[in-house]
Amino acid sequence: MPEESPTSPANTATDRLMQALLRPSRKQVVAGLLLALLGFAAVTQVRVTGTDETYAGLRQQDLIDLLDGLAGTRQRAEAEVDRLEDVAAGLRDDSTKRQTALEQAQKSVDNLNILAGLVPVTGPGIRVTITEIDGRLTLASLLDTIQELRTVGAEAIAINGTVRVVAQTSFAETEGGFTVDGEQVEAPYVIDVIGEPGVLGGALTFALGPKKQIEEDGARIEARELKAIDIEAVARRDRPRYAAPDQGQ
């Protein structure tokens, strides 16, 4: 049987296939890459599609109910936040009110301590010096002087730097001068007064006032305004023996 020609169709197809596998053309390479990418994409799509989704199997009504529940939870959370903020604001208000009340109470206590002469004080005022020249200062003139100073707003008074004068202070005339709350004071009498200097000075010099009375006693009075006076003397604290606050007030 005659041999097949080198140019027979079978040999030509085989040769072409072998040549394509061993030496692919540019078009064949591009086509192969495209097929590989399509295969990768297909496999990925299958895997993603096969993944279990949490809500994929729920019905429409189930999803609506779920959203309604989430909305309700959010509303309750917001309402709780608002309530807690109101509570915090109320606590801040209460704290502010308590602090204000404490400050006012402390201020009242300080004022009462000053008026009662229980604490040392400092402030502007006048220093009154009464010197006996041709006679002796009378108790009436001394009391009138102190009363006039109180009337115009004296906040603190001390005599000779040792005795604090308050509403309950007692005065008595003695051989060498006066006893003020049981303590002896003698001339010259130095009265330190804290208050408005100009007003205090005017209370001594008006017609028929303390200055005239003191001069009629044979004494001399001088008043000097000072920007700051320190009064260290304090009144004796006496606790009531019989009086008590009315519980009904």
Low-pLDDT runs: 1-10, 46-52
Structural class, from helix and strand content?
alpha+beta
- Average pLDDT rating: 80
Rough shape?
rod-shaped
Please compute the radius of gyration using only Cα atoms.
54 Å
SS strand fraction? 15-25%
Q: What is the CATH C-level name of the domain at 121-231?
A: Alpha Beta
Helix content: 40-55%
Number of strands: 8
CATH architecture of the domain at 121-231: 2-Layer Sandwich
The CATH homologous superfamily of the domain at 121-231 corresponds to: Protein of unknown function DUF881
- The total count of helices amounts to 6
As for the CATH topology of the domain at 121-231, it is Alpha-Beta Plaits
User: Strand order across the biggest sheet?
Assistant: 3-2-7-1-8
Order of helices and strands: HHHEHEEEEEEHHE
Give the biggest beta sheet: 5 strands, antiparallel
The N- to C-terminal Cα distance equals 145 Å
Walk me through this protein's architecture:
With 249 residues, the chain is of the alpha+beta class. Among the domains are: 60-115; 121-231, Alpha-Beta Plaits. The chain is built from six helices and eight strands; from the N terminus they run αααβαββββββααβ. It has helices at 9-22, 26-50, 60-115, 139-151, 197-205, 210-216; strands spanning 121-132, 156-159, 163-165, 171-173, 178-180, 183-185, 189-194, 219-231. The strands form two sheets. It has a five-stranded antiparallel beta sheet, with helices on one face. The chain has a three-stranded antiparallel beta sheet with strand order 4-5-6, with no helix packed on it. β4 and β5 form a beta hairpin. α4 (139-151) runs antiparallel to α6. The relative contact order is 0.11.
